[in-house]
What does this fold into?
Amino acid sequence: MITVAAGQSAALVWAAGAVLDNAQVTISPAAGGAPVLGPTAAGLGVSGTTYSLVWQVPSNTAQGSYTAVLAGTSGADPVEVELDVFVSSLPLYETLAEVKERLKITDTDRDARLAHLLATTSRSIDKTCGRRFYLDPSPVARILNPKGRVTVDQDGWHLLTADIGDVDGLAVAVGRAPGWSDVTALVEAEPTDALEQLKPVTSLLRLGGSWPVGGGQRVQVTARWGWPAVPDEVREATALLTLRLFKRTDSPEGVLGSSEWGVVRVSRQDPDVYALIQSYILPGFA
It folds into this structure.
């Protein structure tokens, strides 16, 4: 099974075993329903008997399992080859392949459940940390109330923001709609070396001026919000939590059986997962 987040692209490859005439691709929900793509031959690549297509998954695609079918004819015989694709409504922090490797699973029978658990654990880590570790695909405008967000020191006035993972397209304005005043050129993203270290910008320094702190004034910040890259600790925590939840399938009473280790109690909380993400938890979300 291939896993992909809505809004991202998935490279689909079919081994047809023959050169096909009138080859087309159709992608439909595995549970049934109208196709979300095709039938279409647009963008279909051919190399011998191998066919490929890059599916740009629409951002509004519902989370779930999908079947991508390559269909055509070889001589007078119809040929169909299927691929299973799991679409997560939001990005996953670990890959299905990595989790299957840890579980020593080589078949595809449990791919759908594992992919669903990866989506669940990724969002659980977001909720626990009070932040997300994926990046908006394009800049998004947010209106901030500067009250309680402004600090002042010898360097100047700092506006605390949510995580900003990319400053390309960064735009900052003060005031109120529709009379915004652009101050982008008078703003410095902080920490100045954050993005180089694959960490987010969390503050905006107002150069030679101050941020409004009263009078109903607001600050509009347009940016790509989130983290520039998923931290290794978050990836590891996602994998560990996914493994634990998957193994509970075999332990409804909280007990795991193993011929090598005997019976092991499954605890309610995983201290290893918490230790990995602890430094990423925003105050008030622990």
Remarks:
- The first strand starts at residue 2 and ends at 5.
- Residues 140-225 form one domain.
- The chain has three domains: 2-129, 140-225, 242-280.
